Amino acid sequence: MDAAQRQLSDQTDQATQRLLGTAREIAEPELRQPSLLPGWTRAHVLAHLARGADAMRYVLIGAKYGQERPAYVSAEARAADIQYGATLTAKELIIDVARSAMAFRTVVKQLPDDSWQYPVRILNSAPFPAAQILTRRLVEVELHHGDLDTGYGPADWPPYFAAMELTEPMQSQRQDRINRAKQALSA
What we know:
The structure is a single chain. The protein is 64% helix and 2% strand. By secondary structure, it is mostly helical. Helix 1 (3-24) packs parallel to helix 6, helix 3 (42-64) crosses helix 4 (75-85) and helix 3 (42-64) packs parallel to helix 5. The chain is globular, with a radius of gyration of 16 Å. The model has no long low-confidence stretch (mean pLDDT 94).
């Protein structure tokens, strides 16, 4: 892992800790309230973050062994796993998010240097170097933290994240959150 990758990994760890701090404050009834993502509760968003960490971990394990390993068994299995996770209690869901983040972090820290360039994909994405998983996870954690609708948003992003050069679709996703926050302020 080079210095830039180590920095991204550390930034993801910090973002995850901020997310977990927020998630721990969400009481059980509020966990079942709508998030900013249509059709998803806050519990769905947290379950998605847990399954996303697992998916990225699976992909990196594949890269470690020079194999293409699917992030998810299928899109249907992904949806079912998120739906199931959304039924967990607040305590169980926090444990799930923390556990999956730690398992992801462990694989990141142990991945051999030559594995970071191995081409990987998530669902139907075009192949990309495994090193991009670090950026993708950071983006996922920061954006979905805001999607919990607990007051965290673009104004709270660390300056490095707000200014980070992103590829599509991550750039558009971040811009969508910025636009949504501007609309909320003007309403």
